Amino acid sequence: DQQVKQNSPSLSVQEGRISILNCDYTNSMFDYFLWYKKYPAEGPTFLISISSIKDKNEDGRFTVFLNKSAKHLSLHIVPSQPGDSAVYFCAASRAAGNKLTFGGGTRVLVKP
Amino acid sequence: DSGVTQTPKHLITATGQRVTLRCSPRSGDLSVYWYQQSLDQGLQFLIQYYNGEERAKGNILERFSAQQFPDLHSELNLSSLELGDSALYFCASSAGRAEGLIQYFGAGTRLSVL
Questions:
Q1: CA-CA to B100 of 20 to 30 Å: which in A49, A71, A100, B27?
Q2: pLDDT by residue (tens digit) across B8-31?
Q3: How far apart are CA B4 and CA B93, in angstroms?
């Protein structure tokens, strides 16, 4: 039972353009959503989070949007840079301090 | 550098063997989590410890066990290893309960069972 899904396994985007990564979830008990970025041979690195009481959170080039009614969130990266090429994981949690439930990841390639 | 240290980085062993993976959390973090990532899939939660006590259990096999010691480092023990146990094993730590939303991950241990 996959409670968090990232339906696009890969995404290719030109440098300077917008990258949009999508994530869907099924469990309405999730209260927090996080995005992690992962380079090969490294552990996931936290990028940005959003709580279920908000619909948008912004941090520099990264913005996360949450649509609770659709159980859908997205991560926008603007402008995309070659260093953003990595695998991005969406994760959800029922509360701070609880386990994270991860999506399968989206591999992003930013072309110079 | 996340501040979470995992050793060893790589482990190659044979079926039927037993291994121990070690994790040192970030200074001051009370919660330790273990995750398994197989074949470029998402991370699957195995188990969580909070200040030495088991707090939550996920899809952890009975052949696997973990503990958190008084100095807060944690070990994940995998026994009677099978080919399917080959995976990346990540440890993460967070500050505590209410403050522990963000989990910080180590670089992982890559286990290869031959």
A1: A71
A2: 999 999 999 999 999 999 999 999
A3: 7
